[in-house]
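Onboarding guide, step 5: your first structure request.
Type a short instruction followed by the sequence, for example:

Predict the 3D structure of this protein.
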Amino acid sequence: MTFFLILLIGAGVVLYLWYAAIVRRRNAVGEALGSIDAQLQQRHDLIPNVLAIARRFLEHERGLLEELTALRARAMPKLGERDFAGIAEKFRTEEAISADMTRLFAVAENYPELTSSAPMVEAQRSYDEVEANIAAARRFYNSAVGDLRNAVQVFPGTLVAGLAGVRDLPPFFEAAEAARQPVKASDHL
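The system replies with structure tokens like these:
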């Protein structure tokens, strides 16, 4: 009887410790998402300034400028998203913004008066800094997601995940398909 009681208490302690570990890891994912959102907010704050500077010179690229404006409007409400099911869509929208901003800066290279403009040079430098910070925040997020997934998927995590409020596992941030393709120098010459 005493052995059974000790075994029951031991199992309860193990389950509680696993529950606490899952909760800590779920909160770490939320913290990592907060870091990404802080950096994305900085990027979203930069976009109108970059577009205002670029509009003076890039009349022929009106479609790109309008697409960036529309993507930003679609992405802004998703900042702060914590529903793991909606995070994948948020990441896809942000990847589209990143791709369009890269395209904008590449197109700007064809306009020497734009690329030599001090406000544009400063905006591009600020944007590059924010992108580096976003990349670091995404690495932290992926690490937190990996830890949470391991805690949930290893027994007894599967038993206590629901109690810890983890019903869906968050997605990893993955590079867009275009970013996975090898770079061909001939495409840029």
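Each response can be followed by summary notes, for example: The first helix runs from residue 2 to 55.
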